[in-house]
Amino acid sequence: MRKKIDGLSRQLNRDIHILDVGGRPEYWENIGHENVSKIILLNYDEAELQRTGSENNLFEVRVGDARDLSDYDDNSFDLVHSNSVIEHVGGWPDMAAMAREVQRVGKTGWLQTPAYEFPIEPHFRMLGIHWFGAPTRSSLLRLSRHYRNQNRAARRMHAERINLLSHRDMHVLFPDCNIWIERIILAKSYVAIW
After folding, report:
1. pTM for the whole thing?
2. Same domain, yes or no, for 34 and 79?
3. For the segment 126-173, what is each residue's pLDDT rounded down to a tens digit?
4. Which candidate, 28, 5, 27, places its Cα nearest to that of 15?
5. Domain count, the chain
6. Which among 25, 149, 162, 179 is least surrounded, fewest beta carbons within 10 Å?
7. What is the DSSP string of 49-89?
């Protein structure tokens, strides 16, 4: 990501403007702020934006929906960034809408998501739970210390709110993009880069 920002800044001969869908300032502390003029942090949940805690005027926080970025013109950002968000927006039509929108508003982009093929589901930290249907996933969540005290309806809601994407899914959603694979022996996550 750092190389992409620096390369884009050199190519444009200026600092770049970033839309971070679902992001927070602390993430950017790891990446760094060099060659960046503004980062708009867009989140669906206003409570997430209140957690930002940054007094840095580099960041602008906005409430919005990744599936509908109609407030922004085509190619209005030098870079659109999203880290582990697309799997939370809903089912396939919602993920497809987000994929279309981020590619529309970003001249370039970097969208990361956990790999469906990896055996450990990263949100629940459980082996293979994501390979089952929602009813079975909600039953298996009883085994997790974080969800065991929740009723069936709450566990089902959690089971349905995350939809991991496969390598093939990423190619369908981002047909003109490079799909970079982060590996820990097996594919751990995918990054669509355009």
Report:
1. 0.90
2. yes
3. 999 999 999 999 999 999 888 989 999 999 999 999 999 999 999 999
4. 5
5. 2
6. 149
7. HHT-----TTEEEEE-BTTB-TTS-TT-EEEEEEES-GGGS
